Amino acid sequence: MKLICAQTDLAYALAAIRPAIAGRPSHPILANVLLTAGLGKATLSGFDLALGISVAIEAQAAPVSRVALPYALLAPLVAKMPSDTALTLQVKANTATLTSASGSYTMAIADATDYPDLLTPGAAATTVALPAIELQAAIAATAHAASRDESKAILQGISLCATAEDIEAAATDGHRLSIYGPARPADLPRVIIPASVLRHVTNLSGDIIQLTRDTNIIRFSDDHITITSRTIDGAYPNYRQLIPDSFKHHITIDRRNLIAALERVAILAEVVKLTIRDSQLTIAAEVQDVGSGAETLAVDSATNAAIAFNVRYLLDGLKVLPTTQVRLSMNTPTTPSTLSPVDGDTLQTYLIMPVQVR
Questions:
Q1: What pLDDT shows up at residue 86?
Q2: What is the pLDDT of residue 347?
Q3: According to the model, what pLDDT value does residue 93 have?
Q4: Are 205 and 269 part of one and the same domain?
């Protein structure tokens, strides 16, 4: 096989599939990139048995063939080669030679027949075309709230209900809950997708993303990149019922000013106390034998209340809301509170459990 392509295209493809290259592979073949070439293009694929990523680039190749190349050697070599030149990859017997205008490198290759088949949705799979900007907004709004605890497999995923009309997504780790989009009817199909997989979907660059769903396989693709993963089996919590029907206290505040104040107070402590009185919000933290601090901000509210939160959870929610002004709604110091955008086009809710302090 002989393949010729642009350095920028090959470097782009190798960088894009990096998350799917196994760091500590269960089988040596998984440390390789599978290259399939011919008919005016080349497709580079990585697969760690859970996540598969494939990228198609323009290339001159003959004949149509497949080869497994060592990712740890090929990717850094290509990245360091001049970006304004074409690269030639020639495979003979058990070696591949990569040539640029300035140099040539030879590397041992693996048997491509040993490379496992990538995950593929079956004939009964369904496909829906989604605006990339909305899908990526849904992921950005929820992924941070997914659990990272491996003992909570269901909560490591994002619950997604996607139709051609709109998207509902939700993630929770048991301490906070982030919801994006309008409530969808309960009878619509939902799927639980690992948050770690969906974070890679935000790298797709097309205007439209095709979502294809099978019983236990999900695939996202644009014109160049395809991301495939297994879904998570199980029943996701009924998250809508966790949101209180009404609230006693509401405050409206500038989001950026609140983030800046919280980040300063967070230097002192993990838990901050919020006190609202006389249209002012006081954010305070105190750590015995360390120090204390407080910030005061003006708020649009006549209510009087006090509540404490994990400051990291509070900041995570504030940073994904899309509006200048945000609303904090509360009941008691021991029941869930919510953050929501004010005058925003996106239906987005962030629920957070308060922390009890003495």
A1: 95
A2: 87
A3: 86
A4: no
46 vs 54: CA distance, rounded Å: 7
The reply to whether 257 and 344 lie within a common domain is: yes
**Can you say whether the dihedral through the CA atoms of 202, 206, 208, 212 is positive or negative?**
negative
Q: Give the total number of structural domains in the chain.
A: 3
- Give the pLDDT confidence score for residue 119 in this predicted structure: 93
The 10s digit of each residue's pLDDT in 243-253 is: 999 999 999 99
Q: Of all helices (H) and strands (E), which one includes residue 71?
A: helix 71-80
CATH code of the domain containing 80: 3.10.150.10
What gap in Å lies between CA 75 and CA 17, rounded to an integer?
10
Residue 84 dihedral angles phi and psi, to the nearest 5°: -105, 20
Q: Do residue 253 and residue 208 come from a single domain?
A: no
Task: Inform me whether the pLDDT recorded for 240 exceeds 80.
Answer: yes
Structure confidence at residue 345 (pLDDT): 67
Laid out side by side, the sheet with 305-310 consists of 291-298, 280-287, 271-277, 305-310
Instruction: Quickly count: other Cβ atoms within 10 Å of residue 51's Cβ.
Output: 21
pTM comes to 0.90
| Spatial CA neighbour of 217 closest among 202, 203, 227 | 227
Out of 114, 135, 163, a domain closes at: 114
Cβ partners under 8 Å of residue 23, min gap 6: none
Same domain, 10 and 108: yes
CA distance 82 to 100: 8
Q: What is the pLDDT of residue 265?
A: 96
Stretch 155-177: mean pLDDT = 94
Write the CA distances from 73 to 117, 150, 234, integer angstroms.
23, 31, 40
Which residue is associated with the tokens 């994904």? 320
Summarised one tens digit per residue, pLDDT across range 108-125 is: 999 999 999 999 998 889
Residue ranges of E strands in 304-355: 305-310, 325-330, 337-341, 348-352
Q: What is the pLDDT of residues 185-206, one digit of tens each?
A: 887 889 999 999 999 999 898 8
Going from the C-alpha of 154 to that of each of 51, 159, 205, 292, the distances in angstroms are: 17, 9, 28, 39
Note whether 230 and 309 are same-domain residues.
no
Omega before 63 within 30 of 0, i.e. cis = yes
Is residue 223 in some structural domain? Answer: yes
